[in-house]
Design brief:
There is one protein chain. This protein is 25% helix and 25% strand. By secondary structure, the chain is an alpha+beta fold. The longest helix is centred in the C-terminal third of the chain and has 63 residues. The protein is globular, with a radius of gyration of 38 Å. It comes from Strongyloides stercoralis (Threadworm).
Length: 999
């Protein structure tokens, strides 16, 4: 018996040794789906191949399929490898169940080879330039030598091949394809959009090195493969690196810029994360017609090569800042305006009317492309960009000629305002002195000045502070010429603040025009004004010429609309500027030289006292000390003149509006402040509160703010990009500015309610809330916001105040069936800053311990996905950052409305369904009497109508009964007839079951 066991184990050991060999041998293995590249099963092999027998695809699709399995489209390092592939194909064809189908496909269609044109303009004279999949170039004159001395032909049946663009190499076996008379394999240049067979190739895995880390795209032969790290290495020969995704373009005086298309549909924020994390770039920005045309050519090829249609391609243009002004995501200047366009349908236009991001897509009924505004949570493909080799990034950081002059030359004339070596004057404040754009420009020149240019946020605040008493629109010195922005004084355009009220209209002739609330359209040319009345501080674009725009109505009638405003007929005030010099009539408001203790906004009767200039006081102090100093400062003799009537008080400043904020910050800059306290403090019981008891109306937060881990008090830092709010410890020491004004009167609290149709929502202080628990409506967080919009005309929930949050948590606590995790509308934006998705002020937070989790660059998924926020009901409704692709419920919210607001009267049926409606309790007694008399009269009429009503019911019943009897009788007669026919058929048919029983 033991001998039998011995023989059995010996047999198993021999089989293992025979199959796998000894440990000393260099064993190879192919991953799933691949087979060894060899003609004999007993031979060693170094490479594996995968032949896709079932499907054909375009060249790019083949590239993506092979890449997804760790391989690449087949390329040959030597002729022997090709002969092996040829044998394997014929061998598989012999044993295939349907051999003719597969071999016919190869014979007719051919096999994609790993070299092709991936970008527009890849040709030299009349010959195309191809790239291997590792990024190296293959020039036409060197093709035969590089391709193992195999012949190369052009596709003579395709006349468009002469265009030289979008061609790839196709491999045909001997005796197949258009040159079937040849007895050896050959190549043909064909369109990359055709459908061909895909064969993937990759290095075999080594058993001895399975546990070692191996770089991607590594191989023995450096001619066709590159180490993964080299993909991002740029050089003069490879200005965008070796990644064939990028398409380079040379820009005069700047260098090479790289663009590429990503077909993966996603939202705007995620697409930008992908460009940054995976491709070391950003979403595309355009600064010339040359760049935009290059990207359009890439898009055209992508639409053909990928063989897919998309709603558009995301670009970096957006209005996701708190001011809703246009900007590029890569922080480059907005110095070029492309072709803005409207949507094909009114439905699309309405859906994206509040969109803050932009796509480039084909214009309806046109071959041209335009920029379309869309909701940022829409799903689109996108365009990435990055600077290429030797790109001059400093081209966008040109230093302004302003403020270069010595500060000794700081004299201004009477009526002019001084700021950092420049003098400004506001003209046209009287209606008789207002001028159009051209007249204003000429008047400034006659004064040896120019219409003002604005180079940064500080100068913007300077201009806005001059308008606090005027509060009307004024001309500034910007013009738009053929879509390009220019300052009249030739300053470089690196700061813009266009108004969110700009809209786009399309005429019946297919032209597209800018417009705003006050005028209809311009496309290429216009002038710019600064809004001082409605959207304070924002810029409006006004058409250059008076236009008649023709629209086609639903009744096929042409409607002529004349633009109400253009640069010639619009009369506004205007601001001129010049350099401050020593030649002046009388030096006035020279604050930098005089350094007065306080500046007063006379029309507002508010003063800001810059205590740093008072050498008798210590003003760099802690928050509590600064608050006390401001409260007591009017008792000091120096400041008593600001309180002549004895009714004013002093407190730490908090801006009430944009004019006040501009005035405060511009004078703090002129008085050499770097940072100062403002009267806002965070309380875990009440959220953000003001020291003067007012309501917080602004929140100009810096990056990664508000961050409660830093402290609970707020300072303003005057940074290069502009003044920003930052959280800090209340025990740190910062400079002090005090605000002097009258004590605020407590306003009577307005009673509010939820809007019509949302009466059953949770009523908060400023918002109404609804918890969506329908499992069929669970999507990623950005999609949840879109669903809130589609189903309820709402957004993901925000909690602007502590009271809103407390009311909601009380409801959620009472309804214990609510899920433990709920998505809310707090999102991590640029630089780690959190913001409410509906733009509400971020005055309150309730983060859990160690939250929000800080993104780490090496954790890719964390960086991309944990930008969303959830409520943790099991942890006392604490907030936590979480992945956006989780199956959680979510909360929607809308603004509350005044309880006295007049709303549309619902139908009778709606009144029956609304449980929250109730009669008006404030009706007068006289109205009650009139109603009661009216009811008595109606009741008398009702008694007569009741008898008529009963009689009509009885008659209707008898009529219905008669009709039912007639229909029933007819159906019964038909059924009887059918039964007789069936019986006759049964008698004529042999009943086999009966015969079987009898036998």
């Amino acid at each position: 018996m033991y001998k039998n066991y011995f023989y059995f184990f010996n047999l198993i050991f021999s089989c293992i040794l025979f199959c796998y060999g000894s440990n000393n041998e260099n064993k190879k293995k192919c991953t799933m789906g691949y087979e060894p590249l060899r003609d004999d099963d007993k031979k060693d092999f170094d490479k594996c191949i995968n032949i896709n027998y079932s499907f054909t695809s375009t060249w790019v699709s083949s590239f993506l399929v092979c890449s997804s399995t760790g391989g690449k489209i087949i390329t040959f390092e030597n002729k022997e490898d090709f002969l092996l592939v040829n044998k394997i194909i014929k061998k598989n064809n012999k044993f295939n169940i349907q051999p003719s189908t597969f071999y016919d496909n190869i014979s007719k269609l051919g096999i994609w080879y790993g070299a092709g044109q991936t970008c527009p303009g890849m040709y030299n004279n009349e010959t195309p330039i191809l790239r291997y999949i590792n990024g190296s170039y293959l020039y036409y004159k060197d093709m035969e030598k590089s391709l193992i001395d195999m012949n190369i032909y052009k596709d003579l049946q395709d006349n468009s091949i002469k265009n030289k663009d979008n061609v790839c190499l196709v491999l045909y076996l001997s005796g197949t394809g258009p040159k079937s008379e040849l007895n050896k394999p050959y190549f043909v240049l064909e369109r990359c959009t055709k459908e061909k067979i895909t064969i993937c190739i990759k290095d075999a895995d080594d058993f001895n090195k399975l546990n070692e880390e191996t770089p991607l795209y590594s191989s023995k032969n450096d001619n066709y493969n590159s180490d993964y790290n080299e993909i991002f290495t740029m050089s003069k020969k490879y200005p965008c690196g070796l990644n064939i995704f990028w398409c380079p373009i040379k820009i005069k005086d700047q260098g090479t810029k790289c663009y590429g298309v990503v077909r993966q549909p996603t939202d705007w924020d995620h697409s930008r994360d992908i460009c940054s994390t995976y491709l070391n770039g950003d979403l595309a920005s355009f600064h010339s017609n040359l760049e935009e045309n290059h990207v359009q050519e890439i898009i055209k090829e992508a639409e053909q090569v990928y063989n897919f249609m998309t709603t558009g391609f995301w670009i970096g243009l957006n209005r996701k800042n708190s001011e809703k002004s246009l900007e590029w995501s890569d922080d480059s200047p907005l110095n070029y305006l492309g072709r803005f366009a409207s949507f094909n349908t009114i439905k699309e236009e309405n859906e994206h009317s509040d969109g803050n991001c932009f796509v480039i897509k084909k214009i309806f009924n046109s071959t041209k492309y335009g920029w379309h505004r869309m909701r940022c949570d829409s799903q689109n493909s996108f365009i990435c960009e990055k600077p290429g080799y030797g790109f001059n990034t400093s081209i966008y950081q040109i230093n302004s000629k302003k403020f270069e002059h010595s500060f000794d030359n700081k004299g201004c004339n009477n009526g002019e305002k001084y700021y950092n070596g420049m003098c400004y004057t506001l003209l046209g404040t009287d209606s008789r002195d207002k001028k159009n754009f051209y007249e204003a420009d000429e008047d400034c020149k006659s004064r040896d000045m120019t219409l003002v240019s604005i180079i940064d946020e500080y100068e913007q605040n300077m201009i806005l502070s001059m308008l606090h008493s005027f509060q009307e629109d004024v001309w500034i010195g910007m013009s738009v010429t053929k879509g390009t922005l220019r300052w009249i004084d030739q300053e470089s355009v690196k700061y813009t603040k266009f108004s969110p009220i700009n809209r786009i209209y399309r005429s019946s002739g297919g032209s597209f025009y800018f417009t705003n609330e006050n005028s209809f359209g311009f496309h290429d040319n216009g002038c710019v004004s600064l809004d001082g009345s409605n959207h304070e501080g924002f810029w409006n674009v006004i058409p250059l010429k008076h236009l008649n725009i023709s629209f086609l109505s639903k009744l096929n009638k042409n409607i002529e609309i004349k633009t109400r405003k253009d640069c010639s007929n619009t009369k506004l005030g205007y601001i001129c500027e010049r350099y401050a010099t020593k030649d002046y009539d009388s030096k006035t408001e020279n604050e930098n030289a005089e350094q007065p203790l306080c500046h007063t906004m006379k029309d507002e009767d508010i003063s800001f006292c810059y205590l740093k200039n008072n050498k008798k006081l210590k003003t760099k102090i802690q928050f509590k000390e600064a608050n006390y100093l401001c409260n007591e400062m009017l008792d000091l003799e120096t400041y008593q003149k600001l309180n002549n009537d004895g009714k004013k008080i002093g407190y730490l400043p908090v801006p009430e509006n944009s004019f006040e904020w501009a005035y405060l910050t511009i004078h703090s800059d002129m008085n050499n402040y770097e940072s100062f306290w403002i009267g806002i403090q965070y309380s875990y019981e009440k959220g953000f509160i003001r020291s003067d008891g007012g309501r917080i109306k602004m929140g100009i937060w810096g990056p990664d703010e508000p961050n409660l881990h830093k402290g609970s008090c707020v300072i303003v830092k005057l940074e290069n990009e502009g003044p920003r709010w930052y959280m800090t410890s209340c025990y740190e020491e910062h400079e002090t500015i005090c605000k002097i004004g009258y004590k605020k009167k407590k306003h009577q609290e307005i009673k509010v309610k939820c809007p019509v149709g949302k009466e059953n929502w949770i009523l908060g202080k400023t918002k109404c809330y609804y918890i969506e628990e329908d499992s069929y409506k669970r999507f990623s967080s950005t999609d949840n916001n879109h669903k809130c919009y589609l189903h309820y005309n709402a957004t993901l929930a925000s909690f602007p105040t502590k009271e809103d949050f407390q009311i909601f948590t009380e409801y959620a606590h009472q309804n214990k069936h609510v899920s433990d995790r709920l998505y809310i509308g707090l999102m991590r934006l640029k630089y780690g800053k959190f913001s409410w998705i509906d733009g509400s002020p971020t005055n309150f937070f309730n983060w859990d311990k160690n939250e929000p989790s800080k993104p780490e660059s090496w954790k890719l998924s964390h960086t991309l996905d944990t930008r969303c926020t959830v409520l943790l009901l099991s942890k006392g409704y604490a907030w936590a950052s979480d992945f956006c692709k989780r199956d959680y419920n979510y909360i929607c919210s809308v603004d509350v409305v005044d309880i006295n607001e007049i709303e549309s009267i619902p139908d009778d049926n709606e009144n029956d369904n609304q449980s929250t409606t109730s009669p008006d309790k404030n009706e007068s007694s006289e109205n009650d009497k009139k109603e009661s008399i009216k009811d008595e009269k109606e009741s008398k009429k009702g008694n007569k109508n009741d008898s008529n009503y009963i009689r009509s019911i009885i008659i209707s019943f008898f009529i219905l009964l008669t009709l039912t009897s007639i229909v029933g009788g007819a159906l019964y007669f038909i059924k009887i007839r059918q039964d007789k026919l069936k019986h006759i058929q049964t008698l004529q048919t042999v009943n086999y079951s009966i015969l079987e029983e009898e036998s």
